[in-house]
UniProtKB/TrEMBL annotation:
<dbReference type="InterPro" id="IPR011990">
    <property type="entry name" value="TPR-like_helical_dom_sf"/>
</dbReference>
<protein>
    <submittedName>
        <fullName>Tetratricopeptide repeat protein</fullName>
    </submittedName>
</protein>
Length: 111
C-alpha cells in the first residue's frame, strides 16, 4: 500500500501543476498496484479513481471521467460508504454526465 500511496501522491502533485497526462499515468500505476494487492473494492482505490477522473475531466476526456466516477460511486456503495458515494455524485457525476453528453452531441454534429 505504501507504493500505491506514493504513486497517487505524486499524481496529485502533477495534477496541481496541470500535468494531467503524468497524473493519470501515476494514478494508473497506483490503481494497478492496488489491484494486485486485492484492494479493487476499497476506499483507497475509489479515491485514486476519483482523482484520476478529475485529471481526465480537466483534459477534456469527459466520457472516460464519467465512467470512472460511476465506478467510484459503485465501489463506495459496495463497501457501505454512502456519504462518499453521495459526495462523488454531487461533486462530479452530474457535471461529468452533462459534459459527456455535450461532447457526444458535438462529435455527432461534426460527422
Amino acid at each position: 500500500t505504501q507504493l500505491a500511496n506514493k504513486l497517487s501522491a505524486l499524481g496529485t502533485l502533477k495534477q496541481k501543476v496541470r500535468d494531467y497526462h503524468s497524473a493519470i499515468d501515476l494514478y494508473n500505476q497506483s490503481l494497478h498496484v492496488r489491484e494486485k494487492m486485492g484492494e479493487k473494492e476499497s476506499s483507497g482505490y475509489a479515491l485514486v479513481l476519483y482523482l484520476k477522473s478529475i485529471s481526465e475531466f480537466r483534459q477534456g476526456k469527459y466520457c472516460p471521467a464519467l465512467e470512472n466516477i460511476k465506478n467510484v460511486i459503485s465501489i463506495y456503495q459496495k463497501i457501505g460508504d454512502i456519504d462518499s458515494a453521495l459526495n462523488a455524485e454531487e461533486e462530479a457525476y452530474k457535471k461529468y454526465q452533462e459534459a459527456c453528453s455535450i461532447h457526444m452531441e458535438n462529435v455527432a454534429k461534426a460527422e
